[in-house]
Amino acid sequence: MTTRRELLSLSGAALAASVLPRFARAQQWPSKTIRAIVPFGPGSTIDVIGRIVVDPLSAALGQPIVVENRGGAGGSIGSAAVVNAQPDGYTLLIHASAHSAAPAAYPNAPYDAGRDLRGVAVFGSVPTVTVISPAKGIKTLKELVEAARKGSFTFASAGIGSATHWAAERLRLAAGFKAVHVPFKGGPPALTEVAAGRVDFMCIGVTSGMPFIRSGRLIPLAVSTLERSSALPEVPTTTEAGYAGSDYIFWNGMLVHAKTPAAIVDRLHEETMKALRQPAVVERLKSQGLEPMPLSPARFDALIAEEIERNKAIVKAAGLKFN
């Protein structure tokens, strides 16, 4: 007859046997190429920032990191691909705040943003800037709001439920005007249409919008942060312009499958934070308008959970339709 002590010993051995292979895999990681999925098109804000961080991270890990753009459905298609991949640390998700808006915009998405994915590291936050073509003759946010209240206005986005869509809706609701949403498959084509004057305005990350602003093809009217952006210090905030509640935090960062071993998540976080502190990386991110936002994986997860609930509440209260 097996004694209680023997039974406990056997149970402990069985548990150790089940844990050891996972621990060993984590210790050996990475031993092959890593995929980093960006759920938006090339040239989008998160694509540009993600590539800046991935290069030194790849060098630190000693393995290539291949960036794969999978745009569509406000980032949901790329996110679902990570959820459906093996939770072994070889498939990363480079995403932005659209991730925590997805449950409100896509309640029937094939994954749970808060449960199926977990945060690794935040690269920083990027101010979104409201831009318009010079041909429109509008030079301030107040003028845009007044014109939109009188007529039929349109606004572009990088896709339904994307950060660019969400930022514009927040501004529209806070300022009290109606506008027709015109979604595109990515930020660059949307910016091109706004610059051409075929769509009235857009709320875009400073990273993507800056080339158009510098060339004079678009006029920056206001940034979404509570304080002015170091990239556009002369441009007022939407709150300064008089629209309380219009601010929007556009974070950018890395996530993985929720079942990824903790040892791998910790290693990824540690190496990513080291990469973010490299002087060359700091300068490159600063030129993109990125503001530091260091968070632990646990705090990152908490931020996502808070934003998911807040976004759902706003959609419900305002009766927004993301389609």
Characterization of this structure:
The chain has 323 residues and is of the alpha/beta class. The chain has two domains: 31-125 and 250-318, Bordetella uptake gene, domain 1 (D-Maltodextrin-Binding Protein, domain 2), CATH 3.40.190; 128-223, Periplasmic binding protein-like II (D-Maltodextrin-Binding Protein, domain 2, 3-Layer(aba) Sandwich). The chain contains eleven helices and ten strands. It has helices at 4-28, 45-61, 76-83, 98-105, 141-150, 163-175, 187-195, 206-214, 262-277, 279-287, 297-318; strands at 34-38, 65-69, 91-96, 117-125, 128-132, 154-157, 180-183, 201-205, 219-223, 251-257. Strands 2-1-3-10-4 form a five-stranded mixed beta sheet, with helices on both faces. Helix 2 packs across helix 9 (262-277) and helix 4 (98-105) runs parallel beside helix 11. The longest helix is centred in the first third of the chain and has 25 residues, at 4-28. The radius of gyration is 22 Å and the shape is globular. The N and C termini lie far apart (66 Å). 48% of the residues are buried.
For the record, what is the CATH homologous superfamily label of the largest domain?
Bordetella uptake gene, domain 1
Query: Low-confidence spans: pLDDT under 50, at least 5 residues?
Result: 16-20
**Strand order, sheet with most strands:** 2-1-3-10-4
**N- to C-terminal distance:** 66 Å
CATH topology of the largest domain: D-Maltodextrin-Binding Protein, domain 2
SS class: alpha/beta
Q: What fraction of the residues are assigned to beta strands by DSSP?
A: 15-25%
Task: Summarize model confidence as the mean pLDDT.
Answer: 89
Describe the global form. globular
Q: Describe the sheet with the most strands.
A: 5 strands, mixed
CATH class division of the largest domain: Alpha Beta
**Can you count the beta strands?**
10
